[in-house]
Design a protein that fits this description.
The chain is an alpha+beta fold. The chain is built from six helices and 13 strands. It has helices at 42-45, 64-76, 92-103, 142-145, 169-182, 268-299; strands at 28-30, 33-35, 54-58, 80-82, 107-114, 118-125, 131-140, 155-161, 192-204, 207-216, 234-237, 241-252, 255-261. The strands form two sheets. Strands 3, 4, 5, 6, 7, 8, 9, 10, 11, 12 and 13 form an eleven-stranded mixed sheet that branches. It has a two-stranded antiparallel ribbon with strand order 1-2. It is elongated and about 165 Å long. It starts with 27 loop residues before the first strand and ends in a 14-residue tail after the last helix.
Amino acid sequence: MMGKKRKHSEAEVEVPLKRDENTPQRPKRTLFGWKDKIEVKESDSKAFSNKEKVLVTCSRRISYRYRHLMMNVISLLPHCKKDNKVESKDSKGTTLNELVELQGCSSCLFFECRKGKDLYLWMAKCPNGPSVKFLVNAVHTMEELKLTGNHLKGSRPILTFSTNFDKDPHWKLLKEMIMQTFGTPKGHRKSKPYHDHLFVFSIVDDHIWFRNYQISVPHNEANKMDPGGLDKMTLVEVGPRFCLNPIKIFGGSFGGPTLYSNPFYVSPNQIRALEKRQKAGKYAKKVKAKKRRKMHKISNPLEPDEFADMWKE
């Protein structure tokens, strides 16, 4: 005989187990292993993070020396992005602002070459300004100098400024713009957490002179620094070298109201015109001298020579 079937009891209701608040939660499992839960602190979320990015570009028909200078600047700034050349027209400000917005940058360095000879540098905060227009002089690239200094590519620089930057308000504004443009943000993904070189900005004759130096620290055989090694640090120049002559400071990005105009600025076209006038003056002096000599010969003719016809017979 077959046994009797048991009656199905009513479905038991599962009661969820209560977990203590102090017990840690079990980590989630992923394909790559157990994943711990990352706790986000309120203080970290509210902390300031510098997300400064610089767009570096140039105008069309730029000469090779100025293009090499731009590439040197790009190699020194790990937080920069480079873009295609932009036509140097009156509407370049609108084009550059759009490029800066598309690249997700907040500043722009635009190398503008005119007549294949003159190099202008636009330094602008986009899209609301301010912006500065410089004339770049005394350009020497790394390839030309061939200096012995060397530092890590992508390392963060130390910015040093001369005391002249704190005298006038326009120099203070330029100092702040240079700090935001050339200063590499801390923790940038393309930068290295080292300070092994410094940028020097000094004002001489109302011009900003730029130098780049490597910080050389002596080491012993164990590859460690001596106790008094900081006093023996030396600076070795790396390059490049250039000089910035500020022309105008504008309230907007690549334009707007003029905040400052350099009264001592003389355009390269005026300098070349003066040189041509000086050369033209030399030529005019030669022509006048020839005329004076001709008039002198006419007014003072030579006496006839008595022996001129003696050998004709």
